[in-house]
Amino acid sequence: IDMTPPGSSFREGTIVGNTIQARPSPDGANIRFLGGKNLKVGGLLAITGNLIGSQTHNIHLVNCRGVSISGNSLYSAAEHTLWLEDCANIVAGNNNIDWNSDHKKKYLFDGILIDRCKGVTLSNTIIENSFQGSSQTGGAIDVKASEDVAIVNCQVLDFRYRGITLTDALRCRVTGCSRNAKLSDRR
Predict the structure, then answer these.
(1) 163: Cβ–Cβ under 8 A, 6 or more apart, which residues?
(2) DSSP at 38
(3) In Å, what is the CA distance from 5 to each residue of 33, 41, 77?
């Protein structure tokens, strides 16, 4: 949903109990909300209890506020499983980020990017086998230029480079998370 044109707005919506699957397409997303400037037109949304996978980005939110993302099974994103840009007051919890183990080799990146956001809580989420980042920067969960982000009780398993990274982050905390950097033979 694109709310960037003047006069556009979206409020009070739900995406619940769906299977949303595609094939990766250039800059494609299974769920994408593009809010207007100053966080005034995109928000009050619940994304709950869905199976979402096999696209370039599984969930991509830009300039949105008041969004709850919970109880979803997310998998096989070519780039980002969850990508938040310029958002505020986002809660993402109790989600499972995995990959389709029927594929003989892991080739998709998966991962979470929180970029230029304020007031984000990521909790009780399992992310396994993320290829996000590089040998120099980034990780399975990457927080950039953001404020008041809490990453709580998450499990980051079998990541390629780093589990959780924070760059230019202010008043952010990581608490009660576990990580396992063991490289598996599935790669």
Answers:
(1) 139, 140, 141, 156, 177, 179, 181
(2) G
(3) 13, 10, 28
Q: Which amino acid is at 61?
A: L
Tally Cβ neighbours within 10 Å of residue 42: 27
Other CB atoms within a 10 A radius of the CB of residue 12 amount to 9
- Distances in whole angstroms, Cα of residue 7 to Cα of each of 13, 33, 42, 47, 59: 18, 16, 12, 24, 24
Q: Are 41 and 62 in contact (CB under 8 A)?
A: no
Q: Does the predicted model carry a pTM greater than 0.85?
A: yes
Cα–Cα distance for residue pair 66/90, rounded to 1 Å: 6
Which pLDDT tens digit goes with each residue over 56-88? 999 999 999 999 999 999 999 999 999 999 999
Q: Supply the mean pLDDT for the chain.
A: 89
Largest CA distance in the chain: 52
Tell me how far apart the alpha carbons of residues 12 and 110 are, in angstroms, rounded to a whole number. 28
CA angle 149, 151, 157 (to 5 degrees): 145
Nearby residues of 77 by Cβ (< 8 Å), 6 or more positions away:
53, 54, 55, 56, 57, 58, 108, 109, 110, 111
Which sequence spans correspond to the domains of the chain? 34-180
